[in-house]
Amino acid sequence: MDKTTGTTKVSTAEATPIIPLPHPVARALVVAGSAVALIGTFLAWTWTEEFPGNLTVTGYPGGLQVLTLFGSVLTLLFALSGYGIKGLGWLTPGGKNSPVLLAALGVFGTTGYAMGAISQELGGLVNLEPGAWVSGIGALIAVLGALGLPVDQPYGAGDPDPNLWGRIRHSLTAPDPGRAKELPSWVEILIIAAGFGVGLYVFSYGIGTEYSELFIGFLIIAAFGFTAVTRAGLLKRLSALTAKHRNVTLGAAFAAAICFPFTQSNDQFALIGANILIFATVALGLNVVVGLAGLLDLGYVAFLGVGAYAAALVSGSPASTIGVQFPFWAAVLTGAAASLIFGVVIGAPTLRLRGDYLAIVTLGFGEIFRITMNNLNGNSGPDVTNGSNGIPQIPDLEIFGFNLGVPHDVIGHELTRSANYYLLMLVFTAIVVMVFRRSAESRIGRAWVAIREDETAATAMGINGFRLKLLAFALGASLAGLAGTVQAHVSYSVTPEQYQFAGPVPPNSAFLLAAVILGGMGTISGPLIGAALLYLIPAKLQFMAEYQLLLFGIALMLLMRFRPEGLVADRRKQLEFHETGQLDVPEDKPLPEGATGVAKAGA
């Protein structure tokens, strides 16, 4: 049955569960299955320590068992909140049952992957101990029970009787949470701090996974767990608080980021964190060009290379052909200024183009930069960059007598070289975030959005499109050059092959653009999250390097199909890519009897 109210059409067609079970029975199966899976994590899963993580110990979960343990606890909490237990209702302000199904699927996926990995690496199912079977069977029971729970939302008016796949997809949706009760400001700030604390712990755990099997299990449980928390409405509640306390949120985010190197004992993981920040900062600069101004730049990595080469030439490296050494602040300004100049020089003659033509020109610029750096070797051209050998032996930075290449003891924790550069890059990221935020909220930022949506209409309203596009191009280039100055010192050397359009190792133009699209164009946190995922996953899954570009393409296709607005989308993108049920133009309805109209002149 459909009910039409005003301009919004609402469907009240009842949605039945995937498996027809009585509601109390289905919820009891979820609780029992989750409890069984939880108990199984305290039993041995295999008999030998040849499988990484030492899953042979009874009474002490380790490795993949910890992930199943966490997922089982999350499923239990969501399932118990459906009973109306006092103190658990806040867990599900949005969907009541879809979070249970998603969490149960995460447990089942992680446990099933662990059992499959053990069987594959050790030579068959015979290598599984009873604990693995207990957790696997418990996870399966929880999934079957979750499929029998009532669906959170009725079917839409456009598809009142979907097929099985449509019913499964619909069972994973949930309504938006209602308005939250007003809390004291200090409580809201504590909730924000707790949220970022949980985020720091999850990120630190993921980046600190020591073998690929554990990292794949982490990805499975993290993906389903994050989606379950989103469907429960917790993320929207947290987003409402962060929007209310924006400055507190930014402070909490950077406080959590500062704590990251203190959670790592392996210098390799701190190095991954530093490279993620470099990649994320460059992606945020590209977000100015693509996300705000709507200019498709396929050669953006060249501006990172310009900043890196400029910093390397004035770094005092023995291989530098200039033979000078600038202090840190001067080297940073040199890299940013060089990229700015290149941005203006390249943008001035090309930004009168639009769409695909602009994309082709910027792609050409990226390749021209790489070829030029190769040719400035003293044979094909002047000896400036040492050609394909690049500029090696770049010395470590020294800021106010603080040598970043030497470990330092801070609060009883040793900060390694990588941790030092991570903290330096974090300062640069804060600067770029501040520039992006101020630019997006200014008149210039609103003009960029107007040009992105419809340049012809923006020009007709008096906006100087060419000048503002050139400003966006120059600003994005200078931000990339800023990150390039640090990248040169972190990697000890710069070579032309580091700055390609596409390749197996980020950063490159394709991965930078993908980070912006994956995270969410026009947002601050979107490119940061997208860049972190696109750098961390290849760094952890080295054994899949040969198939990286194939998997990268598949992931982009799935993203465009199921989440075209990105992981973190602004309101405009959500309305653009998803049906809201609201008409584009309000219905022309006559005024009720006795109502008084207002003439145009009177208005």
UniProtKB/TrEMBL annotation:
**InterPro entries noted in UniProt:** ABC_transp_permease (IPR001851), LivM-like (IPR043428)
Annotated membrane topology: Multi-pass membrane protein
Tell where it localizes: Cell membrane
Kindly report the protein's main subcellular placement as a broad class.
membrane
Q: Can you tell me which residues the record assigns to a coiled coil?
A: none
A Pfam match is: BPD_transp_2
Q: Where is the composition biased (Basic and acidic residues)?
A: 579-591
TM helices/strands, residue ranges: 28-47, 67-88, 100-119, 131-149, 189-208, 214-235, 247-263, 269-293, 300-320, 326-348, 355-373, 419-436, 470-490, 510-537
Record protein name field: Branched-chain amino acid ABC transporter permease
Organism from which the protein derives? Streptomyces lanatus
